[in-house]
Amino acid sequence: MTRIAFLLLLIVSASSCVKTETPNSGLRPYSIFIPNAFSPNGDGVNDTFKPVFPPSTPPLQSYNFEIYDGDLIQVFNTTDTSKAWDGKSSNGKTLPEATYYFNLNGEYVTGEKYEVSGGIALMRP
Fold first, then answer.
1. In sequence order, what are the residues at sequence separation of 6 or more whose Cβ sits closer than 8 angstroms to the Cβ of residue 116?
2. How far apart are the first and last CA of the chain?
3. Torsions phi, psi of 26, nearest 5?
4. Phi and psi at residue 89, in whole multiples of 5°?
5. Residue (of 1, 39, 7, 2) closest to 20 by Cα position
6. What CA–CA distance (Å, rounded) separates 124 from 109?
7. Number of Cα atoms under 13 Å in the Cβ half of residue 94
8. Which of 32, 78, 98, 100 reaches 20 to 30 Å from 72, CA-CA?
9. Residue 120, burial from CB neighbour count under 10 angstroms (0-12, 13-18, 19+)
10. Nearest to 63 by CA among 116, 6, 120
11. Residues 111, 5: Cα–Cα separation, whole Å
């Protein structure tokens, strides 16, 4: 099995501007897009967080998407690609503005495995 390591730098300024850099982003299988911030405030814009697979991506055989808080307590987990995180804990509690961590892994029907992890800024404007 080939392992691919990803480095994600999450930069947050004093004014809460968020920027990510992925120096080896060219290695990301099928260029899975992972947003770096979202604002679950009910305005209909960026209210949820989930990976976006481009149309050219082969079908998925397996999918696991997990979110952890700063204490590495799991707050969200799904194996359903249509489900997104809404900024609440698994028991429905609204979580505070902070950096959370995600892990996405699975396998395409082609047999190629993928694993991506990094940070996501939950912002409450």
1. 6, 28, 32, 34, 51, 102, 103, 104, 105
2. 43
3. -65, -15
4. -75, 170
5. 7
6. 38
7. 8
8. 32
9. buried
10. 116
11. 18
Rounded (to 5) percent helix, strand, coil in the chain: 5, 40, 55
Question: CA 72, 76, 79, 85 torsion: positive or negative?
Answer: negative
Of the chain, the percentage scoring pLDDT greater than 70 comes to 76
pLDDT in tens, 48-71: 999 998 888 889 999 999 999 999
Residue with tokens 């992925």: 22
- Beta-sheet strand order (sheet of 60-68): 37-38, 113-122, 98-108, 60-68, 74-78
Q: pTM for the whole thing?
A: 0.73
